[in-house]
Each structure stands twice: as C-alpha cells, then as structure tokens.
Amino acid sequence: MSTLLNKAELQPAKPIEELLAAAQKKHAEAAAVVAKGVVGKYQAAREAQVRAYAQEVNVLEGLQTV
Amino acid sequence: MELTCAADVVKLAAAVETRLTRGTKMNDTSSRSHCVVVLKLTVLEGGSVRTSRLQFFDLMGSERFVGQKAAHDTSQSSKATMGGWEGIFSNLSLMALYSCIELAAKNCKKKNPKLDKSMIGMLLTKLLTGSLIGSALTGMITAYLSRHGTAKRLT
To answer: Which of B6, B9, B62, B129 has fewest C-beta within 10 Å?
Structure first.
C-alpha cells in the first residue's frame, strides 16, 4: 500500500440544480422499486437507498434556500 | 442518518457499538464482521456544491485455522460453526482486498488505472476504490499479534 500515490485531490464543485435533479431522479427510481417490492433482504437495502436519497434531496434543498 | 447535532453523532457511535463480537480461541471479543461508516459532507460554495466522503473501515482480522494459534477448535471442521464461517469469509474478503492493493500499486503510475473487474464487484474493494485508484487520502492503522502474543499498534 505504501507504493500507492495517496495524493488527495478536492472533489470538483458542481451546480446545485444538477445534483438536486440527479438525487431526485435516483430517489424516484428507488422509491418505485420499493413500491413494487423486492425479494428478501434486497427490500431492506432498497428501503435504505430511498432513505439515503431522501436525505440527500433534503440537504440539497436546504442548501438551495440558503 | 442525518447528523445535525452532537446527539446524532452519539447515536451513530452507539449503532457502531452494536457490531457483533464473539469469543474465539485467540480473542474473547473478536469482531465478526467488517464495519464501515461513511460520512458524506456537503459544502455550499457560491451556487455550487462540493461533496466529499469520509470513510472509516474497521476490518475484521484474518484468522488461522490450523496450528497452535488457530482461532477455532481444530478438532472439528471450521464449517461446523458460525464463528468458523465468519473467519472463512473474512479471510476471503481480505485476500481479495490484498490482491486489489497489489494490482493498484502495480498500476498506480498509469494514466487511467483500473482494477480487475472480478474484484471491483466486492463491496469492500468497491468502497475503497477512491483509495486504490482514485484521489482519496488514505491512512491505515494495523493491529497485529507479535510472537509473544501481545497486541501492538502501528500507525
């Protein structure tokens, strides 16, 4: 591992609208899958995905109003 | 979960503490799974947003199955107990991670380094892609057992 470069770089800043639209799209996709129902443990994973994207949308919407 | 105050951080820490441990022959409170905490940070810069991730990995260690320092009862198959299976899966995932690190170290000076497709499918290596071939700053703390059986820490 010591031979790896390990050079940190800042993530590029992106327009908030672009990120919000992407997060809303992913949230809608995940919510549709949850509504349809998935077999076994994947349902819980998809529900977690919906919660995560909902949070992301919430945070970005909050930042938009700042 | 969204972290908005100190109490949320305590809740997060409490969730991490619920990680399963089980006694083995080498460690009475041995972690039986890898534990990964991902913190996503969002910063507003003008009209743009910069998102970063802080990832903490506490990996279950590799386990021996033969010899005096075997973690499990060697009189029966490792596959006979849950602890044995946990050790098998831990060794497998750590072996895959080791292969990925080797491959990444070999390819790190290439313009567009790539990991082997079969390895990128594993969750652990997928989460560590930023460290292996990306631009994430990475630090590692290793705990190991010395010859005398006392744990030492390296940074």
So the answer is: B6
- The residue ranges of DSSP E strands in chain A, in sequence order, are 14-15
pLDDT of A11 over the 50 cut: yes
Distance between A3 CA and the closest CA of chain B, angstroms: 6
**Of B99, B112, B35, which Cα lies nearest the Cα of A1?**
B99
Contact A8 B2 (CB under 8 A): no
Confidence band for B119, pLDDT divided at 50, 70 and 90 = low
Give yes or no for residue B146 having a pLDDT over 60. no
For residue A1, give the nearest of B50, B135, B140 by CB distance: B140
Torsion-angle region of B144 (φ positive above 0: left; ψ -120 to 50: alpha; else: beta): beta
Instruction: Record the tokens describing residue B85, joined without a space.
Output: 């299976």
Q: Identify the pLDDT of residue B155.
A: 38
**How near does any CA of chain A get to the CA of B52, in Å?**
7
Q: Which long-range contacts (CB under 8 A, 24 or more apart) does A24-29 make?
A: A24/A57, A26/A53, A27/A53, A27/A54, A27/A56, A27/A57
* Burial (CB count <10 Å: 0-12, 13-18, 19+), residue B51: middle
Contact check, Cβ <8 Å, A8/B137: yes
* Cβ contact B101–A4 (<8 Å): yes
